[in-house]
Each structure stands twice: as C-alpha cells, then as structure tokens.
Amino acid sequence: MKVILIDDEPLALAYLEKLLGEIENLTIIGMYGDPRRALERIKHKRPEIVFLDIEMPELNGMELAEQIQNEIPEIKIVFITAYDTYAVRAFDLNAVDYIVKPVKRDRLLQTIRRFPGVVDANTVEATKPMMVRCFQTLSFCIYGDESQTVNVHWRTFKARELFAFLIQHRNQPVRKDVILDMFWPETDWKKGFPQLYATIYQIRKTLQSINVKISITSSENSYKLVFNDVLLDIDVWEKRMNELPIVTNETLPEYQKLLNFYIGDYLASDDYLWAEGERERFRGLWLQLVKKVTDYLVFRGNYSEAIVLYHRVQTIHPYFDDSYFMLMKLYDDLGDRPSVEQQYAEYTKMLLDEFGLKPTDIIKTWYDRWKLKNHK
C-alpha cells in the first residue's frame, strides 16, 4: 500500500518513516512538512493511507483532512499528534486511527493491522528504537520514552569509560596506541594490548546483552564506533538546535522541549577529564538557548517563567555568574527587594566559598546603585 507522511517537525517525520519502513507491504511515496504542498502531491499520487500531524502552521491537520476527503474520499487518514484533545473531531472525520505522540512501535502496529494484507501480527518483531544518553550520565533508554531506561551491567569501570570515549569519537577511527596511552599509561604496550582487546570484547558483549546494534570495527591500528540505527541524545539535540526558527509564541514550545531535553551537562556525573571540551561546548549551546528563551519571555512580560528558567540554570550550573545577575534584575523588575538581596548574598557566598573571590565590579556596582535607590 502507498503511504504519504505529513508533519512539520522533521525529526518526527524521520522517526515515523523509520518505523513504517520496517513494515512489509507498505511503500512510503512521499514525506512533507508543508501541508499545502502535501495536498497537491496527494491529488497527484493518490496514496491509500495518509499519516497526518494535526498541529501545523497555516493549514492544520483537521482542515487538511477535510480537503483530502472532499477530493479523494477513499483515502484512509491516520492522525498523529502531541495532543489528545482532537480525538472526537478526528473520528468524526472518519479517521482510521488517532495516535498520540511520541509514537510507539507497538501502538503503530495496532493501527497498521487495521489494513488487511499489510502486516501479519506474528511476523513483525516488536523492537523499539534505542537511544544512548550522554546528558548528565551515560545510559540507555527507549527513544520517545526516555523514562524507560535500560539496565546495563558493565563488567569494569574501564569498559564503561572506554565506551564513552569512543562515543565522543563516534564514526571516526581512534588509534589503538592513543587509547593505550590514555587508559593504560603506566603499562607497556606488550601487556597493554591484551588489556585493550579484553576491554573492547567486554564492551561488545555488554551491547549484545541489551540488544543495542552499535558496532565497533577494528583495523590494524584503530577502532571505530558506528551507531548504525541507534540514536544518540547529543546528536538529536544538536540537530534540532540547528533547525530551530526564531523564537515566537508558536515556536516557543519547541524551544522549551529542547531546554528540558538537556537534563544535565555532557557526562557530568562521570566527570571524565577528556570530556571537558565537549562538556563546555554543549553547556555553551544550552546557555545560548536559555538566553534566547528568557529574552523572549522578558520581551513578552513573562518574568515569572524567565525566573523559573534562570533558577534551573543555577541548579545545573551553580557557578554561572550571569544567572545570579539576571535573577537580581528580574526580581528588581517585579519589585521583589528581598529576592534581589537574597540572590546577591548567595552569589557573594558562592564566589567566596568556591573561589575565594569577591563579586565582579559590574555586579557589585549594579547592586550598590540598586541598594542606594531602594533604601532611601
């Protein structure tokens, strides 16, 4: 059966394509982010099934479904949406099904089984896409439901760290002598190579034990970690970061999703020294995202949400000066004098306790002027 997919979110579109591409007797003949263009292609290509997102700009999925059914009433519509409030309306449009995001493979198969001859319930393996997480700590989870973590038993700490190191250098060869110098610096190569081989073997066995299709290829002088169809949270996050449009009231939820996806610094709880460069890079990207969102919230006069976000910054990065300074300014805008004083006191204590320093001239000057103005 011929299928067309419509969703204005590229990542969701690619994920749905991946799930449906694993099912025999389904042929995806088009994928579109623009609903108006999709409608023209549907009229031309005449698919049997259309998988359709509801929340889209300019022309939402409900309106598009009405136009499709007016033009080609025999086409079957399956709605896919992040909201469950449209269900009654969807079935009123005679939709075959209504799936709430994140789409689960088992749930999708329930829908596909409604189309005779497409799939045999006994022949499809109910596998779900896996994702490796590096934000905060190294872990494995089910993509689309990050709460479903996969329990992993690492035989040694060395194996776990080497796997994380190979992740950082994914899809590129890493010389074996470089690995030896980093992980077994005090061992001569004659003894070091057997330890390296044993550790790589442990990593492979661990990945096999949880059915994660990540491969480690070996050449004479190097190893290369290949993710294949497994997802990596930092890659997913950075790709979506690069695709973000400007902040508007309509795009703000996508920004907030990306802010929440960042649950902590890159490999923060593991604190590997070799990861510090990437840790700083991702932290900088996240803080840029915070700045864009808080600037927009302040512009819209939504000080309370901006304050909540900067408090979250303090939780993740307690030594970031700007969070204290921004909170002082925001509380000042709200006329909350005690909170301004509390932020300055916490900032002063943090600098003294952690670094033995005094507040910067810029922040101290601002606070002194504020105090003079507000204590007359």
Give a short account of the largest sheet. Answer: 5 strands, parallel
Count of individual helical segments: 15
Number of strands: 12
Low-confidence sequence ranges: 119-126
CATH architecture of the largest domain: Alpha Horseshoe
| Gyration radius, rounded | 26 Å
Write down the oligomeric state: single chain
Supply the CATH class of the largest domain. Mainly Alpha
CATH topology of the largest domain: Serine Threonine Protein Phosphatase 5, Tetratricopeptide repeat
Secondary-structure-based class equals alpha/beta
Overall 3D shape: flat
Secondary-structure element order, as H and E? EHEHEHEHEHEEEHEHHEEEHHHHHHH
Relative strand content: 5-15%
In the sheet with the most strands, the strands line up as 2-1-3-4-5
Global mean pLDDT: 87
Helix content: 40-55%
**Terminal residue distance:** 77 Å
- The CATH superfamily of the largest domain is identified as Tetratricopeptide repeat domain
| Count of discrete structural domains | 3
